[in-house]
Amino acid sequence: GDPRGLRRAGPGDAGGMPGCRLTLELPDSAQRCFHQELESGTKFTLDYQVISGGHYDVDCYVEDPNGKTIYQETKKQYDSFTHHTDLKGVYTFCFSNEFSTFSHKIVYFDFQVGDEPPILPDMNNRVTALTQLESACVTIHEMLNAVIDSQTHYRLREAQDRSRAEELNGRVSYWSVGETFILFVVSIGQVMLLKSFFTEKRPISGRAGT
């Protein structure tokens, strides 16, 4: 495996929703693992999608600090997994392409830890209702988050569709070259065959004896 550490995060992380978004290349017969130290009672979400390569599938599993597998899927094109931690320690999630012997994959994943903090100070502890301006700010913020998620989704779809189109174009090009070569060989064969039909066979004349 290729272990890589993400930054330490916990429920009280002041940075909001810590985590990581990466696009990684997964060679054939390879596995890449990532590690994240988490506090007990922390929520995390892992979303992933195969952008290109082979049948656009990958194996994925998540282990807790004791090495117990809490999530495992094989040959998935995309999936989402949410979990609340019971133990404090290092959690590991891995992507595996070990079942493929000739095609490498490109995988996008989004790993988020904790819940998004409120956009307004003491928003969760307020007794009074939000003002019209505050409500509008919250609504706009939620809509912007939805736009960001939609843009990410469409970018991934566009990248996957482009990869499929390039793969199809390559196959069409190879078939075109092959058909051209076969047509050339058949044409030469037909010419040689027709030429043999019209070739005159002249008899060999011997010298007369005296």
TrEMBL record:
Residues 31-113 form the GOLD domain. It is found in: Endoplasmic reticulum membrane; Endoplasmic reticulum-Golgi intermediate compartment membrane; Golgi apparatus, cis-Golgi network membrane; Membrane. Keywords: Endoplasmic reticulum, Membrane, Signal, Transmembrane, Transmembrane helix. Its main location: endoplasmic reticulum. The keyword Transmembrane helix applies. It is a single-pass type I membrane protein. GO terms for cellular component: endoplasmic reticulum membrane; endoplasmic reticulum-Golgi intermediate compartment membrane; Golgi apparatus. Belongs to the EMP24/GP25L family. This is Transmembrane p24 trafficking protein 3. It comes from Catharus ustulatus.
